[in-house]
Amino acid sequence: MEADPDIGALLPCNVVVRTEADGSVVFMDPAAVLGMVDKPQIAKLGIEVRDKLQRVADAMRG
């Protein structure tokens, strides 16, 4: 929010990580959404959040 006050319009209020019938785990890619803002520190944050969500998805797969 400090890097770009308007980023709040792009941020989801919640995060959904779900398992599909075929066992795949899906979630919205925050790096893709936050990459729409032309600021390197915001893009870096999106990548960090995506990496954390990926660890959650990996744990759900077992």
Task: State the main characteristics.
single chain; about 60 residues; mainly alpha; two-stranded antiparallel sheet; 2 strands; TT1751-like_sf; DUF302
Question: How is this structure best described in words?
Answer:
The protein is mainly alpha-helical. The protein has one domain. The protein has helices at 30-34, 40-61; strands at 17-19, 25-27. It has a two-stranded antiparallel ribbon with strand order 1-2. The radius of gyration is 13 Å and the shape is elongated. The model has no long low-confidence stretch (mean pLDDT 84).
Biggest sheet overview = 2 strands, antiparallel
Query: How many DSSP E strands?
Result: 2
Number of helices: 2
- Global Rg: 13 Å
> In order across it, which strands form the biggest sheet?
1-2
Taking all residues together, what is the mean pLDDT?
84
| Percentage beta strand | 5-15%
Portion in helices: 40-55%
Report the order of strands and helices. EEHH
Distance between the termini: 34 Å
Q: Structural class from helices and strands? A: mainly alpha
